[in-house]
């Protein structure tokens, strides 16, 4: 029998029939445990009768094997050799009937059993093996049925708790109550999220089952200590069922959160897109979400772009919303948009300080990105938020034009000066103003790949200070003088006549505004 596989003998579940308990059955009256007393707690899975020695090779573990030893009655060595083989196979015990075939159990067999802790039960000669077989198997099956019944009842109580609207915490409390053991819901890193009873500090749980959604582990249900009100098998099944129910609750919560997020986004998008058709209905829906739209608010639009050359993962909506609520308060209405988010911000003492705080929070949350914030004017009535939103988009677009696409800035529409006036004009009027004052320069720049329009803009911004303008343009002073002569030749001398200078400056601002609108 050398080389036979070694079968691990599992620890006895509380519902299992052990060798010691089997000896208390009526069919085993008069039987004695004569060797291998250390194996008395072995669990019995089934009983069987051996009439030929090689039956052992078909054993799967947990058997209480009964025999008359007829097949090896004249070979004490063969009988003794069975003991280590049965132990390797994970059998629970060997019951040998003492009688005409084997009057006395061989000493070598008993010594081997004691060394291995493998139980040898001496059966009286008058007992019927079939009676023992029947009673042992019946007792094992009854215990298994009772354990299954208790497990099913516990599963039903846990399931009913969920059907009654129970939370994950209530599941953990019920699990601890039913098993009599501390129980907890833990995160992937072991952090306790919900607990019932005092969770032992620094002690590994006795039973754990993972909570997995979409193949990704999100946590686990853990339980400490042996069950005081249930068997070990029932305990493991209960923990597994709680993990399944907790997973179901988590999926439901995520689905509800996603539906709520979509509902909120649709309502907020509608508020900033057009004036609501039904003011009362819009107010009712906003109140149901506890937005507090009765207070004055301004629309702020945030754009987040990866810094040039930076390799970074896309910014999630959750990260942006968390940053906004950290800066402006947990109840601030905010929603994700392509490339950023939109916020209905309360101005507080200063809209500038509020938007600057928002900019700092988003920048801190997205360090490898550039952050731009544009805000419209404060509106006391929520039906005018769409106007504030349009202003925020204009402020953001203008900021991009003035600061460059890689710039990080905060720009308020109320601080846009002349651009607020120009923004009221339609594109056709702006183009007419630009063409009249700057048309020849724009055509020249297009034909010769020059920068006369930009040079004129910087020169006027610097209050016609040629030295400062040349320094900002990074050109020699004589180069700027040459460009100014070209400008004078093409358009006259706009910096000499106050009215023409005003018209030219307005045209330059209009040109920037049109460029911003195109982007």
> Which strand order does the major sheet show?
2-7-6-5-4
- Taking all residues together, what is the mean pLDDT? 84
N-to-C span: 84 Å
Q: Tell me the radius of gyration.
A: 42 Å
Unreliable stretches (pLDDT < 50, length at least 5) are none
Count of DSSP-assigned helices:
16
Question: By helix and strand content, what is the structural category?
Answer: alpha/beta
Largest sheet: 5 strands, mixed
Could you explain the architecture of this structure?
- The protein is an alpha/beta fold and 519 residues long.
- Helices cover 49% and strands 16% of the residues.
- It has helices at residues 19-22, 76-88, 107-116, 129-163, 168-179, 232-273, 279-288, 317-328, 351-365, 385-403, 418-422, 427-448, 452-461, 466-473, 477-491, 498-518, and strands spanning 17-18, 32-35, 43-44, 46-50, 63-67, 93-97, 120-123, 183-186, 192-196, 207-213, 216-223, 298-306, 334-337, 340-345, 369-375, 409-412.
- It has a five-stranded mixed β-sheet with strand order 2-7-6-5-4, sandwiched between helices. A five-stranded mixed β-sheet has the order 13-14-12-15-16, sandwiched between helices. A four-stranded antiparallel β-sheet has the order 9-8-11-10.
- Strand 10 and strand 11 (216-223) form a beta hairpin.
- Helix 4 runs antiparallel to helix 5 and helix 14 (466-473) packs across helix 15 (477-491).
- The longest helix has 42 residues, at 232-273.
- The chain starts with 16 loop residues before the first strand and ends with a helix.
- The model has no long low-confidence stretch (mean pLDDT 84).
């Amino acid at each position: 029998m050398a080389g036979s596989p070694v079968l691990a003998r599992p620890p006895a579940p509380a519902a299992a029939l052990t060798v010691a308990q089997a000896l208390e059955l009526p069919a085993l009256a008069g039987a004695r445990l004569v060797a291998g007393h250390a194996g008395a707690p072995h669990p019995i899975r089934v009983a069987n009768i051996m009439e030929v020695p090689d039956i052992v090779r078909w054993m799967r573990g947990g058997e209480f094997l009964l025999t008359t030893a007829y097949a090896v009655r004249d070979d004490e060595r063969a009988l003794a050799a069975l003991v280590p083989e049965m132990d390797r196979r994970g059998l629970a015990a060997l019951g040998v009937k003492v009688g005409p075939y084997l009057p006395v159990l061989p000493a070598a067999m008993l010594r081997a059993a004691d060394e291995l802790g493998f139980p040898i039960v001496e059966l009286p000669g008058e007992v019927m093996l079939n009676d023992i077989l029947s009673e042992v198997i019946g007792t094992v099956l009854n215990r298994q049925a009772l354990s299954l019944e208790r497990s099913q009842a516990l599963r039903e109580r846990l399931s009913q708790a969920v059907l009654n609207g129970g939370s994950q915490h209530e599941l953990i409390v019920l699990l601890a109550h039913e098993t009599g053991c501390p129980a907890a819901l833990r995160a992937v890193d072991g952090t306790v999220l919900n607990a019932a009873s005092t969770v032992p500090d620094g002690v590994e749980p006795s039973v754990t089952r993972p909570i997995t959604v979409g193949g990704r582990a999100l946590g686990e249900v853990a339980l400490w200590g042996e069950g005081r009100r249930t068997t070990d098998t029932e305990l493991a099944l209960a923990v597994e069922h709680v993990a399944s129910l907790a997973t179901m609750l988590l999926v439901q919560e995520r689905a509800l959160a996603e539906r709520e997020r979509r509902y909120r986004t649709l309502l907020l998008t509608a508020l900033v897109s057009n004036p609501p058709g039904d003011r009362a209905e819009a107010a009712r829906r906003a109140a149901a979400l506890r937005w507090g739209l009765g207070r004055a608010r301004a629309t702020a639009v945030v754009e987040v772009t990866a810094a040039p050359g930076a390799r970074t993962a896309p910014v999630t909506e959750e990260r942006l919303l968390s940053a906004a609520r950290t800066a402006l308060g947990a109840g601030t209405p905010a929603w994700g948009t392509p490339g950023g988010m939109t916020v209905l911000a309360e101005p507080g003492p200063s809209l500038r300080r509020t938007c600057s705080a928002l900019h700092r929070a988003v920048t801190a949350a997205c360090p490898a990105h550039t952050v731009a914030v544009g805000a419209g004017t404060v509106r006391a009535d929520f039906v005018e938020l769409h106007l504030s939103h349009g202003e925020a988009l204009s402020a953001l677009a203008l900021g991009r034009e003035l600061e460059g696409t890689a710039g990080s800035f905060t720009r308020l529409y109320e601080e846009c000066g002349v651009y607020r006036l120009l923004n009221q004009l339609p594109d056709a009027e702006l183009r007419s103003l630009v063409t009249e004052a700057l048309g020849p320069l724009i055509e020249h720049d297009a034909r010769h790949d020059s920068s006369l329009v930009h040079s004129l803009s910087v020169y006027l911004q610097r209050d016609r200070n040629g030295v400062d303008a040349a320094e900002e343009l990074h050109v020699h002073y004589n180069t700027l003088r040459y460009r100014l002569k070209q400008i004078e030749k093409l358009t006259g001398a706009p910096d000499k006549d106050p009215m023409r200078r005003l018209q030219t400056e307005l045209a330059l601002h209009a040109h920037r505004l049109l460029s911003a609108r195109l982007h």
